[in-house]
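User: For my dataset I need records formatted as: sequence, then structure tokens, nothing else. Please produce one.
Assistant:
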Amino acid sequence: MKAKVLKVLNALLMMIVSALGLGGCFPVVCKYGVPTATFDVSGSVTNEANEPLKNIRVVVKNAQGYFEKQDTSIIYAEGYCPAKYTTEDGRYDFGEGYGWPSSSITIIAEDTSGVYKTDSAQVEVQYNRSGVAKDDTWNKGSAVIEQNFRLKKN
């Protein structure tokens, strides 16, 4: 008898709750995946006389993802990109990469010959969301980072 009364009370409560709109059916949006962003890191390295420096090693730290280079992908771990070396005109360019959006990255310019002092810059990354659909919450947008260095002699 007690079980029958509980069933009836349960049914009545469910009808009242659903009539008031307090049912268990809420619109739920399920998403899966990982936040991503695209970024392009480049710049130049000069000496104090504003002359371009060739073969300066440049490293990007705290960028978590990978850069595409032609038809192969180079994945880097622990937030380090593979090093690039400046060209004749003192330029370096990591190309366009994508991966986990970082709020800041550190770029290090190092003269492996020891003539110039190592310099570094922590850069706050600003993402541009133009061209990204408003409902695409995983894509943080793209960032273009141009960081120039002027190295001093040791």
